[in-house]
Design a protein that fits this description.
There is one protein chain. The protein has 231 residues and is of the alpha+beta class. The protein folds into two domains: 145 residues, no CATH class; 76 residues, ACT domain (Alpha-Beta Plaits, 2-Layer Sandwich). The protein contains eight helices and six strands; from the N terminus they run ααααββααβαββαβ. The strands form two sheets. The protein has a four-stranded antiparallel beta sheet, with helices on one face. Strand 1 and strand 2 form a beta hairpin. Helix 1 packs antiparallel against helix 2. The protein starts with 10 loop residues before the first helix and ends with a strand. 23% of the residues are buried. The N terminus is likely disordered.
Length: 231
């Protein structure tokens, strides 16, 4: 190893410090966007994932250079990172009380952050920084595009709660009057705010393009409504 004067560290060790620092920053940048949206895996989690992946790769590089004498499979530990990150992704995927699956985007972001760490640990800085830029830009752009698509989709799922059973009859009449087809209706008493309320999770098909907020505004005008939200 070539000895350097500053702190008596080697060139390889300086490279390790730079890679770990870059990994911490890149992971934190992705995690910041997720944390701002209130997701369970945030800035610290993403930073640690990227750091861990990078540390594995620089350790692999060290073993390859100075332990095995540049023999063996240099990509072996990278393969283990790609498969091993799945346990974090699986832990972030949850099913809500309304039978909605959440956390898929967070799981994907964790997986791609691990890939960033591998690139940084391998010294592929152009790929890592380019990947970071594309990941962040895609996250912002597709979040905006997804919002526009969903709010105009002909399929909508809502959770609604009324003060009595008569409200449900009024709600069904409202759907019939507006030619809205009920695809699925599920009632769960544990979701109710008040014991005497009636509640349901309903999947609807408008049969045409319709702004979801227009439907919600119409439902809010129905007598005896307690609460309604799109899920």
């Amino acid at each position: 190893m070539k000895e350097l004067l500053f702190w008596n560290l080697t060139e390889f060790e300086y490279c390790v410090l730079f890679k770990l620092f870059l990994a911490a920053i890149c992971g934190a940048i992705i995690g910041f966007e997720r944390e701002m949206r209130g997701r369970p895996a945030g800035l610290k989690t993403f930073s640690l994932v990227c750091l861990g992946s990078t540390l594995i790769m620089v350790t692999n590089d060290y073993i390859f250079r100075y332990v095995t004498g540049c023999t063996g499979d240099i990509a072996r530990m990278a393969a283990q990172v790609v498969s091993g990150i799945g346990f974090l992704g699986a832990g972030s995927i949850m099913v809500t009380g309304h039978n909605q699956i959440t956390g898929l985007t967070t799981a994907a972001a964790l997986w791609v952050t691990a890939a960033l760490g591998i690139a940084i640990g391998s010294g592929f800085y152009f790929g890592a920084l380019s990947g970071l830029a594309f990941i962040y830009a895609a996250s912002l752009f597709f979040r905006y595009l997804d919002k526009k698509i969903v709010e105009r989709s002909r399929i909508m799922k809502i959770y609604v709660e009324g003060k009595n059973e008569i409200f449900m009859l009024r709600l069904v009449d409202y759907f019939n009057q507006n030619n809205i087809r009920v695809l699925a209706l599920q009632r769960k008493s544990e979701n109710k705010w008040y014991a005497d309320d009636t509640c349901a999770t309903i999947e609807l098909d408008f049969g045409r393009r319709l702004l979801h907020k227009e439907l919600l505004e119409g439902i809010r005008k129905i007598e005896d409504l307690r609460y309604v939200e799109e899920i």
